Structure formats: C-alpha cells, structure tokens
UniProtKB/TrEMBL annotation:
Protein name: ROK family transcriptional regulator
Family affiliation: Belongs to the ROK (NagC/XylR) family.
Organism, scientific name: Luteipulveratus flavus
Domain (HTH marR-type) ranges: 21-71
One Pfam match: MarR_2
Superkingdom assignment: Bacteria
Length: 407
C-alpha cells in the first residue's frame, strides 16, 4: 500500500491536479471550467471539485460568462499574495504594471525617459517606479514574485543580452536578467517588446482564441511578435520578427543597421515626424500625429497613408509565410484606428496572395501602449508556474528569497 505522502497516493494525485489547474490559470489567465478541462486533460468533475476547493481557500473566484453561446463559469485566480511586475522600456519612456495572479491590474504608471538614456539610467528609473507603485498599492514586497522586462530590439534569448540593432544603443551588451535582477533583488525575465505585445493580446486582449497571430508594433522601431500554433516563435537565437529591417527600397534612405530603404526608414514614427516637420511651425510629437490624424489634418493623413501602405506591403510578405488569423497593430499610434488601418489593409491586399489578403483580419490593439508592459507581467506569471516560491504563496506560507530591495 502507498503511504499518504508517497507520489502514488490519492492526496499526491489531488495536489498534482490542483497544481495543474493553477498552472493553467497562471499561463493563460481566466478560463471557463470546460477550457480548463481541455487544457489540463482532467475530467469536468475533477475540474469542478478543484475549482470549489480553490474558491473555498480564497485562491480563486468564479463568475458567470458565455462560451460558444452557452452559459459557463469563468474561473480566475484571486488575491495579491503573488504579484507580477511588468516593465516596458522604450526610447523615451518607462512603464511599470503590477498584476495579480488573476490577471488583474493592481497598479500602473509611465514616466518619461531622456532620449539616449543609458542602461543604468533606465533600470534605475524602472526600479524607482516599481518601488513607488508597490508602496502606494500597499503590497508586501515579498509578494512580488518576479519582473518581466520588455525592450525594443533583438534579445539573445538564452542569456537575455541586448544585441546589436536595438533601438537603445547604450543598452547593447547588457545582460538584463543579471543587471536588473541584481538591482531589484528579483528573478527577472526579458523579451522583445513586440513578442510581449503578442503575448498580451492572447492573455489580456480580445484574441484569446487565436492560435496564429502576428503583433506588429509601430514606433521608433518596427517589430513583429509571431504566434504560431498557439506559441511564440523565436527562431534560432530569439530574433525572429525583426521586420523593421526588411528592405523595401534598395535605393532608399540609409538605415541605422547599415542597409538602405529598410521599412523602419519609411514607416517608423521617427520618419513620420520628420516628414511632418515642414508642415508645422513647432516641434511635433507622436501624440500630435494621433491628434492631427483623428482631426483629419491633410498632411498628417498623407504621411499616414504612405507609411501604412508600406507597412501593409511588408505585412503581406509575412502573412504569405505565416498565414495568420489576425494581424494586430500596436504601439503609440494604435488610437488612430482606421486612419492607419485602411492604408495598411490596402497594402496587404495589394501584395499578398489573394486568399491570404482576403481572409487575414487586421485590427488595432485594444490594449494601446500598455500591451508590452502587460505582456511582461504575463511572462512572469507564465514562467512562475509551480515554482517553490509560488507554491509557498498559494499554501499561505512565508516566502524567503523573493523580497525586493528598496530601490
């Protein structure tokens, strides 16, 4: 006979099943009981019993919902005993999000960063903002189980090192998990910001059922996050999706990568701002592009039309290869809606294989400029899985080794 604590005992089996459900909710966010049964392979009756115990223990909450037109029960993890930090650092900004196990935003804030900031400056600003949010939200520092960091540009996946070609040249060669981890006193995970945007669309946005998705971030740089078969596609080194350096015009402007006529030189926000400079008497910002585009300013709409058509042309090549269900456009211009989407659609339909152009849905991200930080938080929750620290938190025990130092 097996003892109550042996791996084959009924109590051990129940614990493993419970952990499987918790892991599924951490990895994918709120789900119906039927979805949990499909994800974990457990029976509907087992899922129902586990959800009842999690609810009884105060670790989950349920609420009515609809799934495939039928009434269902949505399950989400509950409480702030385990909190994930998501950090998005761009050329001119840092945004920090604190999220609960149940994919609920507890606190968030963004601050400006100086153009050309160093890695130390950016990391210190992020650490200070994180500490401020934790204190203001009244969260115990030991509850922060890790931090996800998103950066624009290629990241060497195995070491988390910023590679040549990044929008932040002063960060090249920096090992983010090592440097940020030492500063924060936390486990730190890092990914390209477009990859995190794609992750956010599935975990937080309106595309939770998409298994083939492309997220294109249009900003100072242009990158794509590729979801293929329900999983992020990284490539051999982790640099897949660097579409900003696709050559569009061989005789075009010089790009910072050393080539000519890259997509980034023709359709990035920096290029748009340069194009609009002659039509305005003062400095123009990305926010001005959005404001003037929505107001119907003719010069702005022309710039958006030119950039959008080129973006659609490159997306067409990508769509021909990947054949996605949906392409989501994110970044600081996402509030423009159809003003940018329409020329992108024209470029896609003109240059894609007809069946691909006709069936690929193109939408703006509903998450706006929060997508990358939200994706960074979900990166932590996905990888936290059933780590000893998280198991201790779920069991109500004190956690050691996960207390962030005061920035």
């Amino acid at each position: 006979m097996t003892s109550p604590h042996s791996p084959g005992s009924q109590s051990a089996l129940r614990q493993r099943n419970r952990q499987s459900v918790v892991h599924a909710l951490l990895a994918g966010g709120p789900a119906t009981q039927a979805e949990l049964a499909r994800t974990t392979g457990l029976s509907n009756a087992t899922i129902s019993n586990i959800v009842k115990t999690l609810t009884r223990d105060g670790l989950a909450i349920t609420e009515p919902t609809t799934s495939s037109g039928r009434r269902a029960l949505s399950v989400r993890l509950h409480g702030s005993r385990a909190v994930a930090a998501g950090i998005d650092i761009g050329r001119r900004h840092v945004r920090v999000v604190l999220a609960s196990m149940g994919y609920e935003v507890i606190a968030e804030e963004a601050h400006a960063l100086p153009l050309g900031h160093s890695a130390d400056e950016g990391m210190e600003a992020a650490a200070a903002l994180l500490g401020d949010l934790v204190n203001r939200a009244g969260i115990d520092r030991g509850a922060v189980i890790g931090a996800g960091v998103g950066l624009p540009g290629p990241i060497e996946r195995r070491s988390g090192t910023v590679l040549d070609g990044a929008i932040l040249p002063a960060w090249i060669g920096t090992s983010i998990p090592e440097a940020f981890g030492e500063l924060l006193g936390l486990e730190v995970l890092v990914d390209n910001d477009a990859n995190l945007g794609a992750m956010a669309e599935i975990a937080w946005g309106e595309r939770q059922d998409a298994t083939e998705l492309i997220f294109v971030k249009v900003g100072t740089g242009i990158g794509a996050g590729l979801v293929i078969g329900g999983r992020l596609h990284y490539g051999a080194l982790g640099t897949a999706g660097e579409i900003g350096h696709t050559t569009v015009d061989p005789q075009g402007p010089f790009c910072r990568c050393g080539n000519r006529g890259c997509l980034e030189t023709l359709a990035s926000t920096s290029t748009m701002l340069e194009s609009l400079a002659p039509s305005t008497s003062g400095a123009v910002s990305t926010a001005d592009i959005v404001r003037r585009g929505l107001a119907g300013d003719s010069a702005t709409l022309r710039v958006l039309d030119d950039a959008g058509f080129v973006l659609g042309r490159v997306m067409a090549s990508l769509a021909n290869f990947v054949n996605p269900q949906v392409i989501v456009v994110g970044g600081p211009l996402s509030a423009l809606g159809d003003a940018l989407l329409e020329p992108i659609r024209r470029g896609l339909v003109r240059h894609a294989v007809p069946v691909v152009g006709e069936t690929t849905q193109i939408v703006m991200s509903s998450l706006g400029d929060r997508a990358e930080a939200l994706g960074a938080a979900s990166l932590v929750l996905r990888h936290a899985g059933l780590s000893p620290a998280l198991r201790s938190l779920l069991d109500g025990k004190q956690v050691e080794g996960f207390t962030a130092r005061q920035p």
